[in-house]
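User: I'm curious what two different proteins look like when written out as structure tokens. Can you demonstrate?

Assistant: Sure. I'll show them one after the other, since each token string lines up with its own sequence. Here's the first protein:
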Amino acid sequence: MEPTRQASSTGPSDGPWLVVGLGNPGPGYASTRHNVGQMVLDELASRGGLTFKSHKTNATVAEGRLAPGGPRLVLAKPNTFMNVSGGPVSQLMRFYSLDPSHLIVVHDELDIPFDTIRLKSGGGHGGHNGVRDVIAAIGTGDFTRVRVGVGRPPGTSGAADHVLKAFSAAERKNLPILVSDAADAVEEIAAGGLTSAQNRFHAR
């Protein structure tokens, strides 16, 4: 990988950011909890008037700035299923000659209550198979994660079934706010750095 635009994930960067929304392909999965990362990318694209197009890296990609003078974003949705997300992410990083410090992965998180987001850089996969595959494919966990809380299922319901189901009617009322907050967090990370974003969103 060609080293370019070295920057810390905790501070602002003037280079492009690769923002990957994890999920499963196809309309049957589009409204499920597992695809909330891709919902966040749709919100970001809408804000910037950006259009997703097919890309040679087995992903759909939208590129541009959300505001004049703002950081350049490469929004990407892998065309693969969640558990094999790493291949497209690795290809995208090579295509754009990006360092892991310029990667933001947006994904659902069972261990965070619904309507909550948490931001971090580095660490393990926490049992999330999409994040696990990204780490394996790029050889490091040193990238930024926007973790969108979907909560654990009630009672004895299985986690796998929970994330593959659509949000409940009650959750759907607040889902636009959750998605908007996560999109705000991505913008803040890209413009001001992770620490600034954590100070803003973790204080809630």
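Here's a second, unrelated protein for contrast:
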Amino acid sequence: MASSSLTDRPWLVVGLGNPGPGYAATRHNVGQMVLDDLAERGRLTFKTHKTNSTVAEGRLTPGGERFVLAKPNTFMNVSGGPVAQLLRFYSLDPSRLIVVQDEIDIPFDTMKLKFGGGHGGHNGVRDVIAATGTGDFTRVRVGVGRPPGAQAAADHVLKGFSSAERKVLPNLISDAADAVEQIATEGLTAAQLRFHTGR
């Protein structure tokens, strides 16, 4: 295969969440909010795909990296099947996969970027690892904060953001989308240097 075709291989960016309008504005769906931001940047349209996902394909900037933005149509805990199907459909190695997820162990309005490792208790990531047989992919972990008081984590992530958080949320979503773009164009280390040390 020619090197030019190798470099033009797309990045598969998967936003984890739950399907349906009832979940769209919840903390658990912040990954899909980031994909909406990315699609808007490239004027890309999400369409039904045979991998049990909704997919938008294209470049975000003229001559830039190619992206496949995908939202599994399944519930969070069984996200892995569509992700594995997407990798096979596009003939991509998991090293070209970026998973955007919510993370309760990270304070709201911050994020952490990493490659590889375990699932950290996140059921969506757990299922992606199980279905693909590897944890060797990049994660954009968007902080949604710990639940207040004795509230269960499962209840916390299925709730919407507070009014104060909603004022800041667009900036957080935009920053996470910036992080995805920078990972694809400049590499993970450059993105970590920018987003782990304050924005």
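A detail about the second structure: The chain has one domain: 3-195.
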